[in-house]
Each structure stands twice: as C-alpha cells, then as structure tokens.
Amino acid sequence: MFATTLPPFVSTLSNDPDMRELVELFVMELPQKIGVFESLLEDDNWARLKHVSHQLKGSAGGYGFDCVTPFAARVEQAIEGDHPNLELARSRVLELIEVLRRLRA
Amino acid sequence: MSKLLHTSRTVLHVDDDPDMLQLVSSYLSKKFDVHSISDPTKAVDHLARTGCRLAILDIQMEKHNGLDLLRTIKRLDGGILVVMLTGVVSLESVLVSMREGAEACLFKPLKNPDELLKTMEECADKVARWHRSVNELLVRRAAESSNAELALSLTGH
Description:
The complex is a heterodimer. Chain A is mainly α.
C-alpha cells in the first residue's frame, strides 16, 4: 500500500468499545480490498468493480467510515447504465482507492 | 426452551459481503443466534434444514437476486419472516419487497443498528405469538379429547 500525504479519515466508531475490534479488523483488511480494486481495474472487470463498490457503499458506513459511501456510490453510478463512461469510472475507482488508503481505526 | 421458541430467536442473514455479515452478526448476537451465509444459493436449504423462522436478505448479490430469494422462501414457507437489508435505494425495491411479503426494508449503510435490532425483535415477537397459538390449540385439543373420554366412561359407552 502506498503512503498518502493527505490527512487520514479516522473511524467515527474508534472509541466505541463494542465496535473497536471490528473496525480494526476492517482497516487491517484494507490492503487486500485495495488490491482487489487494482486488480479488477487492470483487468477492466467493470461488472465486478461495480459490485465491490456497491458492497463497500453499504458496509463502510457501518464501520464508522461514512466518508467512503459517496466515493463508492460515484464509482457505481459511473459504471451503471447501457453506456457507462469507463474513463470517468476509472478515475473514480482511483479516487476511491485513495480514500481507502486514508482510513484509520 | 422448546424447539419452536428457540427458532424464533434464530436469524439467517444472507449477504455476499463478508463485512456486512460481520457487522450484522455483531449488532444482533447479544439477542439472537445469528447464522451468516455468504452464498445465497444455500439459503433455502439452510432454512428448510434448521427450521429457522427469521431471515435477513441483501438484494443485489452476484449469484442470486435477493427479491427472487424472498419469493422462493415465501413459497417454501410463508410463515418465515423476511427483512430486506439492502444498498439498493429505490422505490421499486421497497414496493416489490412489500408486495412479496417482506416485513421491512432497511437500507445500508445502517445509520442506526438499533433500528435493525428493533425490527428483528418485532419479528421474533410475531413468530412467538404464532407459536403460542399453536401450543394453545394443542392444549385445547388434548383437553377436549380427555373430556370426551371422560364423558364416554361416565355414560358407560
């Protein structure tokens, strides 16, 4: 995972004793998630990219990362429809990856 | 605890996102026995095998659409109570869920986990109410049967 110079996004649930362990696990698995996005982007696998973005849109907020939701939704929207704008989608996936790199427990 | 009462506190959660399975299990596990399944094609078999009466379904899954799964479950047993938990925020998904017999449609990301807990508690209460009716019916039948036997013995028939 590349380091980013932008400020981190810290989970809003980091001080929740019931959620802390789960949030740490979610953050620990981020490099793997980022790897999946990068690999799908390399393969131009837009159907899977749409699906994993949709999943992230639904789950990240539950781990205190509401900041991810609009970025994941933007990817999904760019891929949706009969004539998706794949260049726009590509830039939005990269944008989402950058957000994921900034997440901290 | 009877098997029927036990199954009213068991929830099957079907979602192909492991992060959601983890999250929902953590929200509900203090009050419910949560069975998490990431492969929707195994859901119906699981329900039939375990007798579980409560289910939470995602809609947009890769292998299976959750609304189709809702229909299949309701055909299997209309008494299984289903709650949709979905990232598909559309009027259509709400209307179809309602028409096909879902108890509720909640949206991801879940802003308030208590809403899910409250919904599942209401479903569990509904299942428990039906179980009580069935139990009362059995008791009444047994009583009627023994009263009839008593009457027969008193009349010497």
